[in-house]
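Narrative progress, year one. The postdoctoral researcher (J.K.) led the effort to move from monomer predictions toward full complexes, under supervision of the PI. The following entry was the first complex the group processed end to end, covering 807 residues in total.
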Amino acid sequence: MAEMKQPDGVQIDLISGERMDGMASMEKIRMILDGVRDGNIVILEEGLSPDEESKLIEVTMTEISPDEFDGIEIESYPRSETAEASFLDRLMGKESTKKLTVIGPANQIETLHKDETLIQTLVSRK
Amino acid sequence: MGLLTELKSSIARAASTLFSEEDPKRIGIYGPPNAGKCLGPDEKVLLADGTHRRIEDVYEEVAASDPPDVSDDPHETWLECPADIEVPALRSDLSVEATPVSHVFRQRYDGQLYRVRTRLGREVTVSPEHPFIAATANGVGTVRADDLEEGTRVALLSSYTPADGAWSSELSPDLVSDGGTVTYDATYHRPKSVQTRTLDPDLSRFLALTIAEAQHEDGFIAFANEREQLREEFRAGVERFGLATTTYDYDGKTPVVRVNSRSLTEYLKQFDCYPAGSHGKRVPQSILTADDASVVAFLRALFDCEGSVSPPDDDRGRYVRFSSASRDLVVGVGTLLLRFGIVGKIRDRTRAGETYYELEIGRSGQHRQFRRHVGFDDPAKASRLEDLCEIDSKANVHTLPLMEVLEDARDDLGMTQAAFYGENKHVARMCRRNSITIDRLESMAEDLPGHEAVELVHNVATGDVTWDTVVETEPVDHEGYIYDLTVPEHHTFATADGLVVHNTTLANRIARDWTEHGDAVGPESHVPHETRRARRKENVEIERDGKSVRIDIVDTPGVTTKVDYTEFLEHDMEKDDAVRRSREATEGVAEAMHWLREDVDGVVYVLDAAEDPFTQVNTMLIGIIESQDLPVLILANKIDLEEASVQRIKNAFPQHETIPLSALEGDNMDEVYDKIAEYFG
């Protein structure tokens, strides 16, 4: 089968928790969306807080534009047992949000499998 | 009074003060969108003025005026109707009332629909979830199409008076009007003019003769009938337009009276009487909306031509029949007869490879109604009808499975069987079979007191519906749009052949089921104010045991992280439309996320119990809701579906209370209300 030669691959940005710690919510969201809109896959070591997730969805929605940007695909490990045990933590403001999160352009990334310990995704070139 | 009872009532008092004095809580409803309860595009609905319209045409007509689309789901369109569309709707006391349609609804649907057929020959194709009004062991309520069984009794209109609405139509552009005459505007010759007329019994009879027995084309009408009297009437009818006829009478052929006039055939279109082959005939809209005298003249002429009366000893039973190759014509005649409380059975038959349709009037009471209101001019048919009316015919005896409900009512009233049922003969058997005839209910209604317990008996006896029996439900594949109407006041409308169906409410979301189904599923609810986009319902009042909880409901579209407008293109949508819809969807989701952070006091999260709850969106949303410390109630909806699993949802979100329910069927709504009061009150 003849295959078109694609000179460039897919860029993956792996962003450490440390780097994210120093950023405000909207800065994080801007960084993620800028990366994704460039066709990159963004992997966050420690994920986003629920509040940031809701803002990410909101901002994504406002940026969706026909033939240009269809939105994002986002996957993270499901929060398992920690949710039950964390009531006290939550009261103390120590809620753990550390969960590896993968974000990519909706038209380039497809989740193949997900469970509490494994996320498999298929990334295609645009 | 025990201490415990005392305590309970003081809590109730405290609760009611709390609820009534506080500002309403704003509760957000989040969750995935649902499928609709709809009719196929070709289904015809009965409008209050007596006319029949394809539901798709009703939708398109409303859409043409570019009304606001209040749907918040990109796959649906939900248009506000102009004020003048009304349908006959069934009230809770089973009487029929002309009621405004507030919205027309359209949804793309690729999947199975159900074609439902009844013993009286009615048929309708609806989505699996579409509810019918049915009499079941629990009384009169709704039953979804996919739960209908052979033998289920469904409501069929049995009498109905059209609202005033004289038919009017524009004069054909091909006609030149000159005072009292019109003339076809021809290029090469000067056709004869016809005298204009208004619809009266005389003209109605002429239209009926044309429809029943004539070859009707653009340019001529040829009326063929063996009976000289009818030919004479047709000729006289033509002469009233100022035209002449020619008669053709050849050996061995049916004599024909013919009028050649394009002016006439064009002018008859003014009355919705169009040239048509035998399969395409129908009752003109002018007749469907006409006064009773004109309708009677029309029916009588049709029955004179195409009607028959079986001789008393006919082994096919004792019937007054009307037959035609056009089902539409038969259905239209059925609608006209409803004005006189006559319900016919529609049958299809095959003769020499051709299908034709019959409307059968089969019961003595109905024969007598027919004689009284319509009758025949034809002396032979008239005398046969006289004979038929002398006999008591028990064809089409309708029974209802209401004995359990009735026995409960009898207990409440403390009456003996003999007093309650009029006589106690057969009652044991009726109980065993859970079956009582409508005749019996009607005679009981005359003697029973006007007590709440026996309201159903009175309603069934005096209502405007009869009960037809489902004989077949057949799944059919459908790809395309499906449609529905919203009738806010009574939630019902009828198909052209009279089946009463439940309407759809915006998107069937749980919020709408609370606010619009209130009467049907238990606690009462009131919606005093609805905003334009129908996103917020303010001051929804839910009454529980005498106290009321007021909440504002914020209903949101299904939350997602991506919207691709090309998905809409695959659903036959124009690009502009698809882009607009996807933009609305993104705005809706953005707004929903914003509200979730800023503007709600509690969340009802509705999940489809038949779907996998472990999706990224569900997990994220529950996480977001938890982080806001909002009270959340998870509703596991659609438990009526076989593949539903409430446990799967409980396992997914063990930290929250999950309430199973079927919003559609109203199952377990009591618990839902209790929990709302508990969580958000």
